[in-house]
Amino acid sequence: MISRPAPQSICILRLSAIGDVCNAVAAVQAIQRHYPDAKLTWVIGRVEHSLLKGLPGVRFVVFDKKQGWHAYKQLKQDLAGENFDYLLHMQVALRANIASLMINARVKVGFDKARAKELHSLFMNASIAPRDGDHVLDGFMQFAAFLGVPKAAPVWQIPLAADDQAWALAQIGTASRNFIICPAASKAERNWLAPRYAAIGDWMTDKGYQVFICGANTLLEQQLAADIEQHAQHPLVNLVGKSNLKQLLALIAQADLVLAPDTGPAHMANAVGTPVVGLYAHSNPARTGPYRYRDSVVSVYQQAIVEQTGKPLGSQKWGARAKGDDLMARIEVEQVKHTILTLLDKGA
């Protein structure tokens, strides 16, 4: 590890998405523990900020992509006159690359060329070390290592206000065991089938759990939740569209178990230490699964990617994605039950 002078000011650039910013928190807080006197600024997306606002010792500058080109002008104004020791550029998307031009920093650290996309390397003057086969979170931790932060197990501390915790407890009521289904990912092809979610909900109800369906107020998520309720034999508590991200995080923190596909709430559960069963078909769960619960995913990705490419798993590009609208249908109810039982046997 290269010895570097202690930084006085650090800017983190990670705009999105929910799962990624949850993973990035672990790296940011590792830096804080090692350099407690450094001033940290995080340029972040509007929705993502609603989850992380109040993070101790971090000043947030919100970049609202819905404002279009005005968002870049606003970012430049917000950071006018500031010069950071380091910019840790943790996102390779073109939007983020352009945003980095509005940030003055002596050293701009990005990903290595193998992981860089959309001209990312052109915006940087330093990079983290090349490495393949890592989880996304481990990639973020490399930025901390670049600054001289010793390697350690990731730790999360995302604050929850008293009113958010009170809201969560009000939903739970007197139930002693609670199970949350967050059924929807950002793309419909990553969602499991409604009848199968319903089957798991009924099964957990029979085991004495209060079952919640949670999600954002979008047409996709509202419809999926309605379909699950229609197929369920027992009543489910449908909270889709009825919570903000902080409230959802508080509810997840109170739950005993979460079931979700490749989506943000899976990583939110991971961050607060609630066991989560992730459902994966299109992306490699070893790379993008809930970090502390990668052994508890139900995945058909490995089979799908080998079939589609004709290459053995060990020869696949690490970030390769499987394609197809029907891949999630390969995950069977009994596989999910088995994984849940395994978690419960471990004390979840």
N- to C-terminal distance: 37 Å
Which shape, going by the Cα principal axes? globular
Task: Look up the CATH topology of the largest domain.
Answer: Rossmann fold
Question: Structural class of the helices, strands and pairings?
Answer: alpha/beta
Order of strands, widest sheet:
3-2-1-4-5-6
Give the C-level CATH assignment of the largest domain: Alpha Beta
Q: Strand tally, please?
A: 12
Low-confidence stretches: none
Please bin the fraction of helical residues: 25-40%
Rg, rounded, reads 21 Å
Main beta sheet, described?
Answer: 6 strands, parallel
How large is the share of residues in beta strands? 15-25%
Number of domains: 2
Tally of DSSP helical segments: 13
Q: Looking at this structure, what is the CATH superfamily of the largest domain?
A: Glycogen Phosphorylase B
**CATH-defined architecture of the largest domain:** 3-Layer(aba) Sandwich
Structure notes:
The structure is a single chain. The protein has 348 residues and is α/β, with parallel strands linked by helices. The chain has two domains: 9-146, Glycogen Phosphorylase B (Rossmann fold, 3-Layer(aba) Sandwich), CATH 3.40.50.2000; 163-345, Rossmann fold. Helices cover 39% and strands 16% of the residues. The protein has helices at 18-34, 46-52, 69-78, 94-100, 136-146, 162-172, 194-206, 219-231, 245-254, 264-272, 285-288, 301-309, 333-345, and strands spanning 9-13, 39-45, 58-63, 84-89, 105-110, 126-127, 178-181, 210-213, 237-238, 257-261, 276-280, 298-299. The longest helix has 17 residues, at 18-34.
